């Protein structure tokens, strides 16, 4: 994703008709027709997925459950996130040392050298990521790396609530005088909770000790994995039942310059050896600066693959093609120097799919996953454009297909949804018979309504489309209020066109995924969080309704022999779900009055006399599910009896309805 001004997008023609309430005539009483015996296309298992990028504190401070910020003192300011205090402090008592030669990926640590420190004499307090979310009555795991130079120092750990009251406490003392770095740990419980708590370490005694990787995790992580992921955030993803997970982005794939691009090999192996990097969203937006935004890569490629497997989704990693962000430096790797980037792609396939006799497959097995991750697709480049991207992608395509012909490659049409740049890339990749072409669109809700028929015009054969990043952006709003019902309803209408054209569009994902209410850079976002809570947006529920009702085959749904693409402000699509024996109809009514429709079922018979309807609806398009408040928009499911040869449906104003009809499928 890239930040663009409204004037920029207007130059690309990203405008549409105004989304205005209609208060006049009711919908025409024309019957709709579903041809249940005539399938139009198969729906891919990967049709509806999720896009993850470490933006808005999405990983560190979000999905990755680590509570300590700058745990290894590797930020540009080694003590960023830490406060040093106490009456006994003297110059040189706490020093930052750097052993770049001996410890190249994690060179910094602190040395504490003290004589006769009394209780409370030296305190190190960590503020966490906009505070620490602490839950009452839960267990927490503290750990650190230490090297004892001279014995005699001990630590007291205290968790502090929002008012600095102690709500958890433990003592830790080095267990060995052996030289070299060792791991220390202690677990303890809490007597209270905090939304923005802190961790305080008090050092007492006499001696010299080196400390690094000072860490605190809740024990109730996703699946109880030590040093794992935040359970409630992963559960929100699992509840979407996504077909795929795209990771790690997004613009962090490219980097502000090539040095800060995402390098997957630095994110696997021991967490203690993963090299910290500045996050490219650290200073991207002057109006939302985040100088403390770094990537520790505790959530790395192994963890992404594992999470995708956990929630039943196919992994879709995106790799650098040797081009930094073209909106920033546009730094390029010369074609003659592209081999390391090509090796990254080939080695990643081996890491994901190779057996334990291969170099990278052996590392995966050593990390705890002997079985392959069943990687089937990878993306080459993110929102890159121009001839230089095409020539680099061509080389990747040749090299990867020569060794792994079964791997599908995703190419990009840049940040454009139309215009000369888009047409050039689309034509180039189709001539190359690219497997999947990634299209992105961030635009007004009106654009999504106007373009609901976008893929009706695409060729049915050849390269397929991955709608890799999309979201409706309402102008005049700035934060979580951008995820209002106007935006979600427009997306629901647009997605009927994606579903109807499953012969063309095989994957789609909203973006971005997560946003921390105290640390966001970009809005709108699918899921908003703070340190303790998760809030699901209307947009989330739209995505969920599509994913839970994906079906297996598209069937024709028409009115007056044409698809429903906005006639009388109604948008619709239909699929069969053969395993469930179900016909599923999705309808968006984007106007301010109700509509009554009769649906004629041809070539298919209903089974039983009951259908279910799940609906999102609100009469006010500006409402949103505000963080900290009761949700304004939630899906509501009802059942009703039906009779006769035609199905009568009522569509409230400003509504998205999913109808599940048990049927005898042909």
Automatic annotation (TrEMBL):
Molecular function GO labels: alpha-L-arabinofuranosidase activity
Keyword Metal-binding among UniProt keywords: no
InterPro entries: Alpha-L-AF_C (IPR010720), ASD1_cat (IPR055235), GH (IPR017853), Glyco_hydro_b (IPR013780), Glycosyl_Hydrolase_51 (IPR051563)
Keyword Glycoprotein: yes
Its EC number(s): 3.2.1.55
Signal peptide start-end: none
Keywords assigned by UniProt, alphabetized: Glycoprotein, Hydrolase, Signal
Location of the Alpha-L-arabinofuranosidase C-terminal domain: 468-655
Any Pfam family the entry gives: Alpha-L-AF_C
Catalytic activity: Hydrolysis of terminal non-reducing alpha-L-arabinofuranoside residues in alpha-L-arabinosides
Entry's family note: Belongs to the glycosyl hydrolase 51 family.
Protein's name in the database: non-reducing end alpha-L-arabinofuranosidase
Organism from which the protein derives: Flavihumibacter petaseus NBRC 106054
